[in-house]
Design a protein that fits this description.
It is a single chain. By secondary structure, this protein is of the alpha+beta class. It has one domain: Hotdog Thioesterase (Thiol Ester Dehydrase, Chain A, Roll), CATH 3.10.129. It is 24% helix and 32% strand. A six-stranded antiparallel sheet has the order 1-2-4-5-6-3. It starts with 23 loop residues before the first helix and ends with a helix.
């Protein structure tokens, strides 16, 4: 894919976020770290779930990522707090993307399991929240990571751990 010219958001001068899904072979054509940094730079689109859930990738380094998010009223439960599913989306995203930074070109991954510990309720006023994911161990086929979600005041809202299955992208996908 030849990247489109990068449009800047007039409000903050940062790359405007495009949303979309690329074919697996395109995503796997570069290292995981290069792909995520390309997403930050606006070269690659962010996935649609980022738009729906109100999250944005802010930093990607080897073994660590950081996202910012702001849940919308669509994620509120009857008690007026943000549904735990939104918190789980944020944590699954940062834990999985931390693993993504460790992938070589030609590799993919999927979440095998994750666990979330809810520490405090998330309110709409908790935003913007910050989520940080870090790799604990990156093996040949399994990688483990941890994630933490903080409110705008820096208080821990939730934390979790995750195991991802790392796989080679099938040659058929690369040729498609």
């Amino acid at each position: 894919m030849s990247p489109d010219p990068i449009a800047l958001d007039p409000a903050d001068g940062q790359p405007a976020i495009r949303y979309g899904v690329l074919p697996l072979h395109e995503v796997a054509s570069v290292s995981g770290l290069d792909f995520l940094r390309g997403m930050i730079a606006g070269i690659y689109p962010a996935p649609p779930i980022a738009e729906i859930s109100g999250m944005r990738l802010g930093r990607a380094d080897e073994g660590e990522v950081e996202f910012e998010g702001a849940p919308t009223h669509a994620f509120m439960n009857p008690l007026g707090t943000i549904h735990g599913g939104w918190t789980s989306i944020m944590l699954d995203t940062v834990m999985a993307c931390a693993v993504h930074t460790m992938l070589k070109a030609g590799q993919g991954y999927t979440t095998a399991e994750f666990k979330v510990h809810f520490v405090r309720p998330v309110f709409p006023s908790s935003a913007p929240v910050r989520a940080v994911g870090s790799v604990i161990h990156a093996g040949g086929r399994l990688a483990t990571s941890e994630g933490k979600l903080y409110d705008a005041r820096g208080r821990l809202l939730a934390h979790g751990t995750e195991t991802c299955f790392v796989f080679d992208v099938p040659k058929a996908a690369a040729a498609a």
